[in-house]
Hints:
It is a single chain. With 374 residues, this protein is α/β, with parallel strands linked by helices. The chain has 2 domains: 19-224, Nitrogenase molybdenum iron protein domain (Rossmann fold, 3-Layer(aba) Sandwich), CATH 3.40.50.1980; 233-372, 3-Layer(aba) Sandwich (Rossmann fold), CATH 3.40.50. The protein contains 13 helices and 17 strands. Strands 11, 12, 13, 14, 15, 16 and 17 form a 7-stranded mixed sheet that branches. A 5-stranded mixed sheet has the order 1-2-3-4-5, with helices on one face. Strand 3 and strand 4 form a beta hairpin. Helix 7 (203-210) runs antiparallel to helix 8 and helix 8 runs parallel beside helix 13 (346-358). The longest helix has 19 residues, at 213-231. The relative contact order is 0.11.
Amino acid sequence: MMRLGRAALLAVFLLLLCGCTRQKPEEGGADWESLEFERSLELLFANQFSVDYYSGGYKKITIRDGGEYLVVPEGAPVPSNLPETTAVLQQPLDSIYLAATSAMDLFRELDAIDAISLSGTDASGWYIPEAREAIEAGRMTYAGKYSAPDYELILAHGCDLAVESTMIYHTPKVKEQLERSGIPVLVERSSYEGHPLGRMEWLKLYAALLNKEDEAEASFSGQMETLSPILERENTGKTVAFFYITSNGAVSVRVPESIWLAGGVYILQDLPFDGSAKSTMNIQMETFYEAARDADILIYNSTIDGELQTMKQLLDKGGLLQNFKAVQTGNVWCTGKNMFQESLGLGSLIGDLHAILTADTPDGLNLTYLHRLS
């Protein structure tokens, strides 16, 4: 409580010192209502955000269920008559506090990791080497996890934007404290995209923040060019189950849309999922057995409880698993732990899945995010 109290006092002091000029419109500056709309960012799959471009280099970002933001070009005034609910992001955005780990890969793709000066994950928690090395070299500072940030440190670094995952909604006081301290909070909702490729398209949002739209378009177009031959092929008809086993022995399953894109059939599609993009369900092992025992391929999701390397490690989690067709044929795979942080790796994952689905034998495949249990 003492720490939070000092942070609050420091925030008030700094805001009084700067007079909140970063948020306040300047006299004689642009009027928001007079700015001319030029175009909207073209999005092929994403529907959780939009970017509108206005005269003078201004950009309005809208996050579904997450608010509006006005990106103000470096040196340009904050427009008058701006709605009070619109947060101002004054460029250059070069001191970002990133608590949404899935966004780091997108900054890396844009060659913009240097824009992140503060991390919500310490060096040991990063599977992205550039992020880990930046912390170890002192170019990025660990500023506490999303639920317990170091407010004083964040303010001392002149943080101009906090990028949070939707987990921040479980600790709303943190979001409120950051905003009271004059730090805009952008909540990352890529995991709510209904289409897997929509999550990758959030690259374009961060590009808009950093004036790197051309780089984002080139990267995304390159990904689509690589995936097009896979997406255009007919479905193989082979069935796949994607799951992990919880600490109490239940089986957690989810809807992995990438299986369909890779040419497979999700064998658990008849379970009553709620239909959301993050739809998951815990079921008993017996229910899982009845639904998935004849699956051609099993894929174990290691992002929750760690990677498996051997079939024995899997069978130790549940005796019924030995009766599954995929176990008996040796067609059981595990994801890598780095898959969650590498958001742009979805294209490679789809490629991995397609290779497994179309290979005559599971032996000898050169994969990026999947490995076969021995």
